[in-house]
Amino acid sequence: MPRQLLLLLLGLSLSTYATEQEEQYEEVLNPSLHQQQNAKQAKEPTASQTGNPAAEIIDGDTGLPDPLDSIETVVAGAAETSEIAPEIAADSEAEAAWGALSLLNTELSPNSTATLDWYSGHLPGGFELATPVVVVHGKEPGPRVCLTAAIHGDEVNGVEIARRVVQNLKAEDLKGTIISIPVVNIDGLWRKDRYMSDRRDLNRAFPGDANGSTASRVAHSLFTSIIRHCDSVIDLHSGSMFRENISQLRADLTLPAVAELASHFGAIPVLQSIAPPGSLRGAATAAGIPTVVMEVGGPFTVDVSLVETGVKALRSYLSAIDMLPRSFFWSSPQPVFYASEWLRSRQGGILINKVTLGQRVNQGQLLGEISNPITDEVEMLYSPFDAVVLGRAQDQFVSAGYAVFNLGERRSIEDLEQQGEIIKQQVVEKNAEHMGLSKDNAKHSETNISSPAEQPAPPASSEEPPAESSATTLGEQTTPKPLPQGNEHE
Questions:
Q1: One domain, residues 248 and 362
Q2: Where is the composition biased (Polar residues) (predicted)?
Q3: 112-133 per-residue burial string, b: 16 or more CB within 10 A, e: under 16
């Protein structure tokens, strides 16, 4: 009899243990149901209240092992979700802040590409001709980079560079926005003419005037409608008057923002150059938008090899500022900085080049010959110092004083910055002398010119840039001191 009672008690204990385990699982999996059961049990009398001895034995110490601790469920990825939730929220806020781009009366949503119409309003008789503006508005936030080409109608290398840069570029792969105006002077491009229809140079009319000349009105429209929406500008040009240039940048390295911009184009030559008055480069930089000029090849024709170098340099820049995911290989990833000097002919005649673009030349090396077709005299042109041929006039008839070779001497960026400041001071003093100002006023003007982002853009001018004072006459055997100028004709 006692043995049977012991077996009965053991069976009841095991049943109770199983019930407790089941309740623990229910508590974990369905807490609300467990709470309801607890509330229901709270209303029922306990075993001591009912006086049931069996219940007291079951609830008492039976000598059996304690039940296992309650099992906590773990949801896969819960910890990771809690950690990355703030990042997701931040990305969502960034996308919301990125939002649509408003340009030329059009709203572009992120991750979109469109060709917009810009009306410069310069055609006579009420005619309107839309200039295409290609916009790639990236999926993710980033800078707004503006490409301009064919400000001069005879410069077509830049048109092809701008086309290739945005060709097959997907907005979903882009951080930021690219705004490309491949043909600014569309009227000049059709006429194969460098200038506007009023015979003025558009790149001497910025920032323009809504009530000014034809060129000034076009400049004002471009500047206010598009340029002011950009964070940086790359203005694409080619040589003028049958001159040609190796692919190169022209930048005022005395300005930190411009120097930083110019350092991201790979191993492309960078020339220290103060922006000519009225140029897009000068006006945009004065408005706080860092701008450089890229010179590629010569007028009227497309030099495919130089175009490819220009495209690679531009894409390298976009990658360097994290707008594009991929990088581009250069044998030397850093740019090469030059002080440059245009050398001029002493007499007129037929020019025959003896060197090529990009060629390294030594002091005294023959650069070319100019043969006078009337007197049959021949002028031998020699390099006055060790240099690289950055630009040259094409074989043609040249007049006396014609800028024939642009020779570059490699310098450190610190040297160029220092020389740039000296040239600015010389320009200010010369202007002050012409205007009858004192040296104190000249110093004040020099402070202004050193910080163009804080000053209004220089006034427009219809004239060509003055010849560089540092240029020497070819044929002289003395070694000049090249100054960092070289915008013939930007």
A1: no
A2: 34-52
A3: bbbebebebebeeeeeeeebeb
